Amino acid sequence: MLDALRAALAAHGLRVRAPSSWSGFQIVAPSGRFENAGNLDEAWAAAEKLAGRAVDPLSPLVIA
Amino acid sequence: MLSSPRRFRLTVLSGFLGAGKTTWLRRHLRSGVFRDAILIVNEAANAAVDRLLLGSADRVHILTGGCACCDGLPKLLRLLRDLLVSSPAAESSAVQRIVLETSGLSDPHVIREAIESDPDLSTCVEVSEIIVIIDAVNGRDLLRSEPMVGRQVTSADCIIVSKTDAAARSDVAQLLVALRRLNPDAVRFGAVRGVEAPLPDPEISDSTGSNETWPDRGAGALLASEIRLGDTTWPVFAVWLSALLHALGTDLLRVKGVVRTPMGRLLIQAVRGCVQPPERLPGAVDDGDGVLVVFSRNHSAESLQRSLDTFAQAARERSG
What we know:
Chain A has one domain. Chain A is an alpha+beta fold. Chain A is built from three helices and three strands. The radius of gyration of chain A is 11 Å and the shape is globular. Helices cover about 40% and strands about 15% of the residues of chain A. Chain A has a three-stranded antiparallel β-sheet. Chain B is α/β, with parallel strands linked by helices. Helices cover about 35% and strands about 25% of the residues of chain B. In chain B, strands 3-2-4-1-5-6-7-8 form an eight-stranded mixed β-sheet. In chain B, strands 9, 10, 11, 12, 13 and 14 form a six-stranded antiparallel β-sheet that branches. About 5% of the residues of chain B have low confidence.
């Protein structure tokens, strides 16, 4: 699951950390800013906040 | 003119995408209500996901690739004619029951009219009942946004309000007001997972009445897509579906398919952006597994498939 999420968010220039101390994710922007997410749905919202745009799996950025 | 001693009583089971038609039907098949019935299942898409769920029922006929009220209507009429002469008890004069589960996009009134105006079928097939299922959670929104839902409701002899346990009592009451306004003559029941459940008192419903209107308009092209999972792994599929649900929200009207996972075969369903708890299905792997039927607004099958394939490719590159 983590690898798949990392691959998906790499297209948006974002990295994913998975701290061993909890079950959620940390979404990290190139600037080092990060957002915590407790589950996948929160991960997309966090990614959108950091990327400043919609993280849309159907966007040309992803499927071009 | 077709000559057959056979007589059919046809129950049409209708309702919009994700309303709970198959859940209701599975429940009633298990309880034996439709024990001797011939079952016809219509799916707008080419993939017959419901065949995987109803396959254990006797005498199931699947009509795929078009709604039974339009593209699939000739196939339905042909099937009914075939059944009149070839059903197991075709020589008998006893009345045989047929249950037709329509696709979520079908207009049951058109089906009734087509049968009643067909010279062969009108004398042998009685459309005895149109049952329409409407989802208590999404029903009011759908009445506003989907003209077909209003047409289904106005055609109904019986309206079943499903998922009443998941909606606020006041929302169910307001939905009942709307249903009564659209079709005052229909009998109304509640249902939770296919089992009859109480509805709010009609007097309470009336007291919460509103002046809502139900415009006959759509909100963009509603497209049916079949997405093939191929060798996509379960984690990649789960991440992709999660991203899709987040991005499209209520524009993702329906997702349904059987997916092979390390936990076994899972029935995956979502309605208007909300995922239902996956259901583990018994039985061996089926050819229909791994095909996801998606109804969405303005997103083609090609873009959805390419999106999933891109996710899968990116994950492979990352792990490889």
